[in-house]
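Crash report, auto-generated. Payload:
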Amino acid sequence: MSFLRVARVAEVSEGRLISVSTRYGRIALTRIGDEVLAFQDACTHDDAPLEGGELDGEIIQCPRHGARFNMRTGECLRMPATEDIETYEVRLNGEDVEVKLD
Ligand code: FES
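Recovered output after restart:
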């Protein structure tokens, strides 16, 4: 497992989601206060990108059919999805956001 640079800190802002493509798939990033959160940018219901979904604190709602997930824990909170999303450890390294991927 290693940390991969995925964005610059300045690109990640509160109340917004950005999506980056990596060799491990799409990763979504957002910020809550000083903390940057990273998780898979693919709904477990039908693989829709979560980018563009409505944010409510730690919760994101899938824009396609409305499933909800906790962005910090990955927990699935509402149907039609039933499986959690992956979340990733984040490390800030100077101006860079790095995510632990395997
Ligand atoms: S693809 Fe996300 S709820 Fe259906």
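Post-recovery validation: The CA atoms of residues 54 and 61 lie 5 Å apart.
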